[in-house]
TrEMBL record:
Entry superkingdom: Eukaryota
BP term (GO), one: signal transduction
Keyword Methyltransferase: no
Keyword vocabulary terms for this entry: Cell membrane, Membrane, Olfaction, Receptor, Sensory transduction, Transducer, Transmembrane, Transmembrane helix
Membrane topology: Multi-pass membrane protein
A single cellular component GO annotation: plasma membrane
Protein name: Odorant receptor
Length: 392
């Protein structure tokens, strides 16, 4: 084991969705179809119910925005699941390739892998905790409110967990129980696949970053061996070629990450502005109870963490890939290198001038994109607040 809880959250969340990441064949990835497809179907039906609710209340922007945040997250979760199922072979190949690389790391390279995976465990655990807390308040809030009102007024008041069109009488307990179970299955899919895909992304980026660190270490080790005179020219050239081959392998992993996550990232950032806007706008208005406010607050925190996971890790991939050229330049004593070695080292240096970037089809994922999303959301919130003031 590289570190404690290594790849634990990823395996746990995917297993909750009926998916086995240890599968070697794409046909065997979905091990429990009921856990995978039944909540997905309920989530799709829930999205339809939310769309119908928004259409019925289309002239009331308050009702529409209240339902839009969950609609965005549900739509994104469904999209993530569909993309994963379609590209599952690519996901599985990347996971196995990185795990194989980690198992082959040398004694001096293991601390780099441990450091990156410790970072991944920290980020994944924080995200996991915040999301589960928001789920607790999502389903706990209506129950706590119902118990409070029943104790204080002896009247049973049943508030829907989320605003949507439910096509039966849900004012009484039997009908409400069906709605509650429907919501639970829908949110089960939303939470499971969101946690699974997002934490897998951080794990993949952390281990690709570890590969870049190992690459720089190997270049430095090769330079040190040449300076000490322990390598002859032939062995020195062979070591450089081995480093160049490892560099190409790492760059291919970054490209594969783009291939499997490109569409997910695109849809994520397209809808994030509206989602954040709706959540902040809801928090800026009076809320039914403290538990409902806590749910909205943790929901917003989950969305913000989800965004920073992608933007921060996209920035890391870019920075690590650009750092290779600098590390090579400072590692070698260029005045004593043979001309043939200088020419050979120019290949990875020139390639490192072009950053490995995570792209969401039309945009690059980095920290500037994170700021852009919140600035755009801020503009939308200002527009909604203006509408609210004019309405009053």
């Amino acid at each position: 084991m590289v570190v404690k809880r290594y790849f634990y959250i990823q395996q746990l969340t995917f297993s909750l969705c009926g998916i086995d990441l240890k599968a070697t064949n794409s046909k065997h990835v979905v091990t429990r179809p009921l856990l995978c497809y039944v909540p997905l179907c309920f989530a799709i039906c829930h999205v339809v119910a939310i769309v119908h609710y928004a259409f019925v209340n289309r002239h009331d922007y308050v009702e529409v925005t209240d339902s839009l945040a969950l609609f965005c997250q549900s739509l994104l979760a469904i999209w993530k699941m569909l993309i994963f199922l379609y590209k599952r072979q690519g996901f599985i190949e990347m996971i196995h390739e990185l795990q194989l690389g980690n198992s082959k790391a040398g004694r001096l390279e293991l601390p780099m892998i441990r450091s990156e995976n410790t970072r991944d465990v920290t980020f994944s655990t924080i995200y996991f905790t915040v999301v589960l807390t928001s789920v607790f308040f999502a389903f706990g809030s209506p129950i706590i409110e119902a118990v409070y009102f029943y104790v204080s007024t002896e009247e049973l008041v049943l508030r829907m967990p989320h605003k949507a069109s439910y096509f039966w009488n849900h004012t009484q307990l039997p009908g409400y129980s069906v709605v509650y179970m429907w919501d639970m299955l829908s949110i089960y899919n939303l939470v499971g696949i969101s946690l699974a895909i997002d934490t897998l992304f951080t794990w993949l980026v952390s281990n690709i970053s570890a590969q870049f660190h190992i690459l720089c270490f190997r270049f430095k080790d090769t330079a040190k061996a040449f300076d000490d005179g322990t390598n002859d020219s032939l062995k020195f050239m062979k070591s450089i070629k081995s480093c160049i081959s490892y560099h190409n392998q790492t760059l291919k992993l970054a490209d594969k990450l783009n291939e499997v996550y490109g569409e997910i990232i695109f849809i994520k950032f397209i809808i994030s502005c509206s989602q954040i806007c709706c959540l902040v706008f809801r928090l800026s208005r009076p809320i039914e109870s403290l538990t409902a406010a806590a749910y909205q607050g943790f929901f917003l925190a989950s969305v913000a963490i989800q965004l920073i996971l992608y933007c921060y890790n996209g920035q890391r991939i870019r920075d690590e890939s650009l750092q290779v050229a600098t590390e090579i330049y400072y590692a070698f004593d260029w005045s004593h290198l043979p001309k043939s070695c200088k020419k050979l080292l120019l290949i990875p240096m020139m390639r490192s001038q072009k950053a490995s970037e995570l792209k969401g089809v039309f945009f690059v994922v980095d920290l500037t994109l994170y700021l852009w999303v919140f600035k755009t959301a801020g503009s939308l919130i200002a527009a909604l607040k203006t509408l609210e003031e004019n309405r009053i």
